[in-house]
Amino acid sequence: MMAQDRVAQDRLTGPLRRQSVKKNVAAIHVSGKLTLLQRKLSNVLLLNAYDTLITKPKHQIDARTLCLMVGYNSNDMDTLKQSLRSLAETTAEWDMLDKEGRQEWGVSSLLSYAKLKSGICEYAYSPALAEKLHDPKVFALINLNIQRRFTSGHALALYENCYRFVRTGSTGWWPIDLFRRLMGVDGSEYYESFKHLNAKVIKLAVAEVNKTSNILLEPEFRKMGRQVVELRFRIRENPQLAMLDIDDGEGVRQGVVYRRLIGVGVSDRLARQWIAEHDEDYVREKLDYLDGRSGVESPVRYLTAALKGDYRDPPALAPVVPLDTPERIEELSRLREVRAAQLARVQALVSGRSPTQRDADKRLFVATVRDAANRADFARNGWASSANLKAIVAFWEDMEPGAFAGLEAG
């Protein structure tokens, strides 16, 4: 592909050739004040639709699966609706040369429509935008394994807008007003000051991109007098994290694990994404786990949760030896009462949180659980996990100091 690009460039002369070199990877600038999760949602929707982006006018995905992949609580349809509304209100704009070397400018809403019905999310892109999004020379898909590492919406926005220029090594010069719009801080009086913009957005976002992703960025500024009027980002690959790139070759498609994923309804690109993100043995293990379950209505949704939560069959338990001394019976009874009271207190704390907060709480807690069996028990039982009770109590005690006063297990 790159050799073909160079041949095409050699056929142009004068200003056209200079323009084609400058924009041989055209950017689609996405404006709007999207949150981190909304940006992730946009990328997941594109990933899901990519294989049929220009052959089908609309696309579908199970709503609960979509929530799991993005990081929403699977029952939080209100947040999903608000996010879809934001994507429909967000514009994508491009300014580039077409195949004949003619200038082309265009603008489109990021989603032309979206609807939720019977547990299915249906959505569409405008034909013009779909054509641009499907062309790898124009728009680069974001690897979900890299996306999930971001914790800042500004950093993910910067990564998205820079990664599309990775082959040219530079974004080219952006007016400061355009950069504010891309970062979603236009209209903010605070960020009208370049000092604040640089300290709170540029420096922090560049640091996270360089630490988190498969590219390294270096900002450069152009001044008019003492005022910064334009900036650009020099881009090079991050050799330490280049392994996170997805392999789009045919090799993965020849594997047994890939064929098994396709067989249960996983899309081509998502199957390759999972194999790249995990290893084949891990994915095979979750496929085997799925095979051992009966009555699974949505294999793709179940596999999404199994891969994320490391579902596995529990080890065989040793036979319980009864200890029936009066003292031991009394002690066990007291412990059961304390544990029941602690679990009730946990459930009360959880019920006071919003659905999205609950999901964030779960992800935060799981990140502290090192033992795979304990993670699996939490994935099955949630906050009622007996294997994690001590850690759960400590977690919520940190969240709500004094919440368990008088309920110590001793």
What does it look like?
It is a single chain. This protein is of the alpha+beta class and 410 residues long. The protein folds into 4 domains: 136 residues, Arc Repressor Mutant, subunit A (Orthogonal Bundle); 104 residues, Winged helix-like DNA-binding domain superfamily/Winged helix DNA-binding domain (Arc Repressor Mutant, subunit A, Orthogonal Bundle), CATH 1.10.10.10; 61 residues; 74 residues, no CATH class. It has 18 helices and 9 strands. The strands form 3 sheets. It has a 3-stranded antiparallel beta sheet, covered by helices on one side. A 3-stranded antiparallel beta sheet has the order 2-6-5. A hairpin with a 5-residue loop joins strand 3 and strand 4. Helix 3 crosses helix 5 and helix 11 packs across helix 12. The chain is globular and about 90 Å long. The N terminus is likely disordered. This is Initiator Replication protein. It comes from Puniceibacterium sediminis.
